[in-house]
Amino acid sequence: EIVMTQSPATLSVSPGERATLSCRASQSVRSNLAWYQQKPGQAPRLLMYGASTRASGLPARFSGSGSETEFTLIISSLQSEDFAVYYCQQYNNWPRTFGQGTKVEI
Amino acid sequence: QVHLVESGGGVVQPGRSLRLSCAASGFIFSNYAMHWVRQAPGKGPEWVAAMWYDDGSNEFYADSVKGRFTISRDNSKNTLFLQMNSLTHGDTAVYYCARPRQPYLDTGLAHWGQGTLVTVSS
Predict the structure, then answer these.
(1) What mean pLDDT comes out for the span A1-22?
(2) Neighbours of B75 (CB within 10 A)
(3) What residues contact residue A34 under an 8 Å CB cut-off, 6+ apart?
(4) Cα-flanking dihedrals φ and ψ of residue B117, to 5°?
(5) Dihedral (C-alpha) A34, A50, A65, B50: value to the nearest 10 degrees?
(6) What percent of chain A has pLDDT over 70?
(7) Average pLDDT estimate for B1-22
(8) What is the CA radius of gyration of chain A?
(9) Chain A CB contacts of B114 below 8 Å
Protein backbone atom coordinates (compact mmCIF):
# COMPACT_ATOMS: atom_id res chain seq x y z
CA GLU A 1 0.00 0.00 0.00
CA ILE A 2 1.03 3.60 -0.53
CA VAL A 3 2.23 5.29 2.64
CA MET A 4 1.42 8.98 2.99
CA THR A 5 3.74 10.95 5.25
CA GLN A 6 2.83 14.44 6.41
CA SER A 7 5.08 17.06 7.93
CA PRO A 8 5.30 18.69 10.30
CA ALA A 9 3.12 16.89 12.83
CA THR A 10 2.30 20.20 14.46
CA LEU A 11 2.57 23.69 13.04
CA SER A 12 2.42 26.64 15.42
CA VAL A 13 1.47 29.86 13.66
CA SER A 14 -0.24 33.15 14.39
CA PRO A 15 -3.38 34.50 12.72
CA GLY A 16 -2.46 36.26 9.50
CA GLU A 17 0.67 34.20 8.99
CA ARG A 18 1.28 31.72 6.19
CA ALA A 19 1.15 27.98 6.83
CA THR A 20 2.87 25.42 4.62
CA LEU A 21 1.92 21.77 5.01
CA SER A 22 3.68 18.92 3.24
CA CYS A 23 2.58 15.47 2.18
CA ARG A 24 4.79 12.82 0.64
CA ALA A 25 3.70 9.58 -1.03
CA SER A 26 5.83 6.45 -0.93
CA GLN A 27 5.25 6.04 -4.67
CA SER A 28 3.71 8.13 -7.39
CA VAL A 29 0.02 8.97 -7.04
CA ARG A 30 0.12 11.31 -10.05
CA SER A 31 -2.21 14.18 -9.10
CA ASN A 32 -4.75 11.96 -7.35
CA LEU A 33 -4.35 13.64 -4.00
CA ALA A 34 -6.95 15.22 -1.74
CA TRP A 35 -6.62 17.43 1.33
CA TYR A 36 -9.07 17.44 4.21
CA GLN A 37 -9.60 19.66 7.23
CA GLN A 38 -10.96 18.26 10.46
CA LYS A 39 -12.12 20.09 13.56
CA PRO A 40 -12.92 18.38 16.88
CA GLY A 41 -16.14 16.41 16.86
CA GLN A 42 -16.63 16.83 13.12
CA ALA A 43 -16.15 14.64 10.09
CA PRO A 44 -13.32 15.55 7.74
CA ARG A 45 -14.12 18.23 5.18
CA LEU A 46 -12.78 18.01 1.64
CA LEU A 47 -10.64 21.05 0.82
CA MET A 48 -8.71 20.15 -2.30
CA TYR A 49 -8.72 17.45 -4.93
CA GLY A 50 -6.58 16.74 -7.95
CA ALA A 51 -3.77 18.11 -5.76
CA SER A 52 -4.57 21.72 -6.65
CA THR A 53 -8.31 22.20 -7.26
CA ARG A 54 -10.23 23.88 -4.49
CA ALA A 55 -13.48 22.28 -3.40
CA SER A 56 -16.64 24.30 -3.83
CA GLY A 57 -16.74 27.33 -1.57
CA LEU A 58 -13.18 27.08 -0.31
CA PRO A 59 -11.55 30.48 0.14
CA ALA A 60 -8.73 31.43 -2.19
CA ARG A 61 -6.27 31.66 0.70
CA PHE A 62 -6.01 27.86 0.39
CA SER A 63 -3.82 26.57 -2.42
CA GLY A 64 -2.46 23.17 -3.29
CA SER A 65 0.39 22.06 -5.47
CA GLY A 66 2.53 19.09 -6.36
CA SER A 67 2.34 15.83 -8.26
CA GLU A 68 3.76 12.33 -8.20
CA THR A 69 5.14 12.04 -4.66
CA GLU A 70 5.47 15.57 -3.25
CA PHE A 71 2.52 17.78 -2.35
CA THR A 72 1.99 21.04 -0.53
CA LEU A 73 -1.02 22.79 0.99
CA ILE A 74 -0.54 26.48 1.67
CA ILE A 75 -2.84 28.68 3.72
CA SER A 76 -1.70 32.16 2.81
CA SER A 77 -3.10 34.12 5.75
CA LEU A 78 -4.43 32.04 8.60
CA GLN A 79 -7.82 32.91 9.95
CA SER A 80 -9.11 31.75 13.33
CA GLU A 81 -11.36 29.17 11.67
CA ASP A 82 -8.37 27.53 9.95
CA PHE A 83 -6.90 26.15 13.14
CA ALA A 84 -7.58 22.44 12.74
CA VAL A 85 -5.97 19.17 11.69
CA TYR A 86 -5.23 18.64 8.00
CA TYR A 87 -4.94 15.28 6.26
CA CYS A 88 -3.85 14.29 2.80
CA GLN A 89 -5.25 11.22 1.07
CA GLN A 90 -4.28 9.47 -2.13
CA TYR A 91 -6.93 8.03 -4.42
CA ASN A 92 -4.66 6.73 -7.15
CA ASN A 93 -4.28 3.18 -5.82
CA TRP A 94 -6.20 0.70 -3.73
CA PRO A 95 -6.24 0.69 -0.81
CA ARG A 96 -6.82 4.39 -0.41
CA THR A 97 -4.60 5.82 2.31
CA PHE A 98 -4.48 8.90 4.50
CA GLY A 99 -1.55 10.71 5.99
CA GLN A 100 -1.25 10.94 9.75
CA GLY A 101 -2.15 14.62 9.80
CA THR A 102 -0.73 18.05 10.56
CA LYS A 103 -2.22 19.99 13.42
CA VAL A 104 -2.24 23.74 12.81
CA GLU A 105 -2.34 25.52 16.14
CA ILE A 106 -1.83 28.97 17.52
CA GLN B 1 -28.96 18.13 -0.37
CA VAL B 2 -26.76 15.11 0.22
CA HIS B 3 -27.50 13.32 3.45
CA LEU B 4 -25.69 10.29 4.85
CA VAL B 5 -26.83 8.72 8.10
CA GLU B 6 -24.92 5.87 9.67
CA SER B 7 -26.42 3.47 12.20
CA GLY B 8 -25.69 0.15 13.84
CA GLY B 9 -22.79 1.07 16.08
CA GLY B 10 -22.53 0.05 19.69
CA VAL B 11 -20.53 -1.94 22.21
CA VAL B 12 -19.56 -5.44 21.13
CA GLN B 13 -17.30 -8.10 22.59
CA PRO B 14 -14.09 -9.15 20.86
CA GLY B 15 -14.68 -11.86 18.30
CA ARG B 16 -18.30 -10.87 17.74
CA SER B 17 -19.93 -9.28 14.70
CA LEU B 18 -21.70 -6.04 13.91
CA ARG B 19 -23.41 -4.67 10.84
CA LEU B 20 -23.36 -0.98 10.05
CA SER B 21 -25.78 0.77 7.71
CA CYS B 22 -25.60 4.09 5.91
CA ALA B 23 -28.84 5.56 4.59
CA ALA B 24 -28.28 7.93 1.70
CA SER B 25 -30.54 10.62 0.29
CA GLY B 26 -30.40 13.70 -1.89
CA PHE B 27 -28.57 12.12 -4.81
CA ILE B 28 -28.72 9.19 -7.23
CA PHE B 29 -27.13 6.60 -4.98
CA SER B 30 -26.57 4.01 -7.71
CA ASN B 31 -24.31 6.39 -9.64
CA TYR B 32 -21.72 6.77 -6.90
CA ALA B 33 -18.98 4.67 -5.41
CA MET B 34 -19.33 4.63 -1.64
CA HIS B 35 -16.72 4.36 1.09
CA TRP B 36 -16.35 3.51 4.75
CA VAL B 37 -13.70 5.41 6.70
CA ARG B 38 -13.03 4.97 10.40
CA GLN B 39 -11.31 7.04 13.02
CA ALA B 40 -10.04 5.61 16.28
CA PRO B 41 -10.10 7.92 19.32
CA GLY B 42 -7.39 10.53 19.00
CA LYS B 43 -6.16 9.20 15.67
CA GLY B 44 -6.45 10.22 12.05
CA PRO B 45 -8.90 8.79 9.54
CA GLU B 46 -8.27 5.29 8.23
CA TRP B 47 -9.85 4.25 4.95
CA VAL B 48 -11.65 0.91 5.42
CA ALA B 49 -13.53 -0.16 2.32
CA ALA B 50 -15.23 0.98 -0.86
CA MET B 51 -17.70 -0.40 -3.30
CA TRP B 52 -18.00 0.75 -6.86
CA TYR B 53 -21.26 2.19 -8.10
CA ASP B 54 -22.26 -0.84 -10.18
CA ASP B 55 -23.71 -2.84 -7.33
CA GLY B 56 -21.06 -5.29 -6.33
CA SER B 57 -18.61 -6.10 -9.05
CA ASN B 58 -15.81 -4.15 -7.40
CA GLU B 59 -15.05 -4.12 -3.70
CA PHE B 60 -11.88 -2.82 -2.09
CA TYR B 61 -10.58 -3.21 1.44
CA ALA B 62 -7.83 -2.03 3.71
CA ASP B 63 -5.39 -4.79 4.60
CA SER B 64 -6.36 -4.41 8.25
CA VAL B 65 -9.94 -5.55 7.59
CA LYS B 66 -9.62 -7.79 4.55
CA GLY B 67 -11.23 -11.15 5.16
CA ARG B 68 -13.16 -9.89 8.20
CA PHE B 69 -15.25 -7.01 6.84
CA THR B 70 -17.62 -7.05 3.88
CA ILE B 71 -19.02 -4.00 2.17
CA SER B 72 -22.30 -4.21 0.31
CA ARG B 73 -25.01 -1.96 -0.98
CA ASP B 74 -28.70 -2.05 -1.82
CA ASN B 75 -29.23 0.47 -4.58
CA SER B 76 -33.00 -0.06 -4.43
CA LYS B 77 -32.96 1.16 -0.83
CA ASN B 78 -30.17 3.73 -1.15
CA THR B 79 -28.28 2.00 1.62
CA LEU B 80 -24.65 1.03 2.16
CA PHE B 81 -23.64 -1.69 4.62
CA LEU B 82 -20.52 -2.85 6.40
CA GLN B 83 -20.57 -6.33 7.88
CA MET B 84 -17.83 -6.58 10.48
CA ASN B 85 -16.82 -10.01 11.77
CA SER B 86 -14.16 -11.19 14.21
CA LEU B 87 -13.96 -7.76 15.78
CA THR B 88 -10.90 -6.81 17.81
CA HIS B 89 -10.07 -3.94 20.14
CA GLY B 90 -8.25 -2.32 17.22
CA ASP B 91 -11.56 -1.92 15.39
CA THR B 92 -12.83 0.53 18.01
CA ALA B 93 -13.55 3.75 16.13
CA VAL B 94 -16.12 6.10 14.74
CA TYR B 95 -17.18 4.71 11.38
CA TYR B 96 -18.15 7.16 8.66
CA CYS B 97 -19.70 6.50 5.31
CA ALA B 98 -18.57 8.92 2.65
CA ARG B 99 -19.38 9.79 -0.94
CA PRO B 100 -17.03 11.04 -3.64
CA ARG B 101 -17.48 14.38 -5.36
CA GLN B 102 -18.57 13.00 -8.68
CA PRO B 103 -20.61 10.09 -10.00
CA TYR B 104 -18.76 7.19 -11.59
CA LEU B 105 -15.41 8.45 -10.32
CA ASP B 106 -13.48 8.53 -7.06
CA THR B 107 -11.93 11.96 -6.74
CA GLY B 108 -12.02 12.94 -3.09
CA LEU B 109 -14.67 12.33 -0.45
CA ALA B 110 -16.88 15.40 -0.50
CA HIS B 111 -19.77 14.19 1.67
CA TRP B 112 -19.59 12.44 5.02
CA GLY B 113 -22.11 11.17 7.51
CA GLN B 114 -22.01 12.03 11.19
CA GLY B 115 -20.45 8.69 12.04
CA THR B 116 -21.42 5.80 14.28
CA LEU B 117 -19.26 4.67 17.19
CA VAL B 118 -18.17 1.06 17.43
CA THR B 119 -16.58 0.03 20.72
CA VAL B 120 -15.05 -3.42 20.99
CA SER B 121 -14.75 -4.28 24.64
CA SER B 122 -15.13 -7.28 26.89
Answers:
(1) 96
(2) 17
(3) A46, A47, A48, A49, A88, A89, A90, A91, B107, B108, B109
(4) -85, 125
(5) 20
(6) 100
(7) 97
(8) 13
(9) 43
A87 Cα to chain B: minimum distance (Å): 8
Q: Minimal Cα distance from A95: which residue of B?
A: B62
Would you say A36 and A43 are in contact if contact means Cβ atoms under 8 Å apart? no
**Sign of the dihedral defined by the CA atoms of residues A44, B34, A23, A60, in that order:** negative
CB of B24 closer than 8 Å to CB of B103: no
Reduced DSSP (H G I as helix, E B as strand, rest coil) percent helix, strand, coil of chain A, to 5: 5, 50, 50
Name which of B45, B63, B96 is nearest A1 (Cβ-Cβ).
B63
What is the rounded average pLDDT of the residues B47-75?
A: 91
Q: What are phi and psi of A80, to 5 degrees?
A: -60, -35
Q: pLDDT, tens digit, for every residue of A31-73? A: 999 999 999 999 999 999 999 999 999 999 999 999 999 999 9
What average pLDDT does the structure give for chain B? 95
Across A84-93, B42-51, B52-61, least confident range = B52-61
d(CA B9, CA B27) in angstroms, rounded, equals: 24
SS3 label, residue B86: coil
| Total length of chain A | 106
Arithmetic mean of pLDDT, B77-81? 96
